[in-house]
Design a protein that fits this description.
Elements lengths: L1 H17 L3 H23 L2 H18 L9 H20 L21 H20 L2 H12 L4 H8 L3 H26 L1
Helix pairs in contact: 1-2, 2-3, 2-4, 2-6, 3-4, 5-8, 6-8, 7-8
Length: 190
Amino acid sequence: MDQERVRAEYGEILSRARQGDQAAFSDLVRLHQDEVYTLALRLVADRELAADISQEAFVRAWRALPNFRGDAKFSTWMHRITVNVAWTQSRKQHRHRADPIDESFVEPVAETISPERAAESADIQGRLRDALNDLPESARTVVVLKDIYGWAHKEIAEHLDISVTAAKVRLHRGRKQLRDSLWSEMEARE
């Protein structure tokens, strides 16, 4: 019953925001700002640029909100806007190098895990993050959208304005580069 109440309140907030209520839209921003920023950060690997992208994504959402049909969840719609803004910003800046993602964005480790296991997990996450940051931007974007956010190839292709085949090829190449990078590092440690 509690979830039903939360859904009803969320639906009411969304409805008021669609009608131009700025306070309701501010509530939506508060509810989704972390996930929008995290997605932007994962796509561009630059904290300042991710903050700019997040802000621009919400500005675009505010402008387009009266046309939001509700075919998808609001969070999915925001993800799509964020990807589009990130792609546009990246093209403008012609970024070819990715800065490392800040350590503060590592998933929290459960308290029940032993200190040794927690250290190992943090080490693996760091190596994976570094390998992901080394990918070309076009491959990193597809890998993040597919493997972290679970987007379908068709969705990725539509939002990046590429063919489904190109999305699959970028995903394959990105995963292969990640595997090769991590494997090489593992062999070097032995």
